[in-house]
Amino acid sequence: MQRRTLLSALAAAGAASAAPWATAQSTWPDQPLRWVVPYPAGGGTDVLARTVAEAMRQTLGQQIVVDNRPGASTNIGAQMVATAKADGNTFMSADNAVLAYNEHLFTKLPFNPEKDFTYVGGISRFPLALVVHPAFEAKTVKEFLAYARANPGKLNYASPGNGSPHHLAMEMFKNRTKTFLTHIPYRGAAPALQDVMGGQVPCMFLDLAAGLPVITSGKVRALAIGSAKRVAALPDVPTLAEAGVPNTEVFAFQGILAPAGLPAAITARLNGDLNKALLNPAVVKRMNDFGMEALPGTPEQFRAMARAESKRWGEIIKAAGVKLD
Questions:
Q1: What is the pLDDT of residues 146-177, one digit of tens each?
Q2: How far is CA 10 from CA 2, 14, 19, 162, in A?
Q3: Which Pfam families does the UniProt entry name for this protein (predicted)?
């Protein structure tokens, strides 16, 4: 009898201590939310975050304030979220850098992408295209490779900087094709693209979020797309696999992370509202404008994709010897 009484008392005490947190979950969200974007305002990640945030506001019933925290190849923003309180009021845009590159590019990170975050869900994926200046003599990937092999080390390519998706896409391309091209890093995508359009550098990998308008206008010529299938906006541009370079999917992706330990009920609510937002007409239009593919799904699916990408890119980064510290 005494044992039953003790167990009953312990159960009651546990229920009482859990009650405030259970109540907090049931009333969430009860204040404006913070969406950290680890890039400057005005870029593609920022614009997409603001578009999705507005759609989620309509179903969550709370304002979502976008907080731009650029720097250190996204590590500043990621560390902020990794150390934030796991109450559902702070989350972030997370991309290839946070989830697939930086753990291989930096000797030591201020966060662990496997342990320090709750994976909420995917937002989008968009492929990169191999583009050349319109006057460049190669009209196909086969001709491009023939030129590169006939001129080893003399063919330069641009990128927004060391460790960027564009840089690493070319490193994968070089790895798969056994070619040698010289990297010319710039401080951002805009100046890199400007020099390719101007003919100062003949080629680069370009994400469709920024590159679709200049490709369709003829300012650069796309030789191939780094996706599993052709994109509707560029139906005549083959995939890299179709062009003779298999096993070379190169794309950027984005999703939402929150601090580790986020309660399951809040995670499920955020994921559900995110998936609803991806069907919102304004979000669909913005993604179409950027040449993006929506990535709805479960937190588990997003985590599995991110970890698979980390393994895939880790092999390329190691083989290329790329380091950012």
A1: 999 999 889 999 999 999 999 999 999 999 99
A2: 12, 6, 14, 57
A3: TctC
pLDDT at residue 18 tops 50 = no
Spatial contact of 156 and 182, defined as CB atoms under 8 Å apart: yes
3-class secondary structure, 158: strand
Q: What confidence tens digit (pLDDT) does each residue in 261-276 have?
A: 999 999 999 999 999 9
End-to-end Cα spacing for the chain: 65
CA angle 190-196-201, nearest 5°? 120
Distance CA 47, CA 94 (A): 14
pTM of the model: 0.86
Distance CA(183)–CA(305), nearest Å, equals: 28
Domains, the chain:
31-125+253-320 (3.40.190.150), 127-225 (3.40.190.10)
Written as one string, the DSSP assignment of 27-74 is H---S-EEEEESS-TTSHHHHHHHHHHHHHHHHH-S-EEEEE---GGG
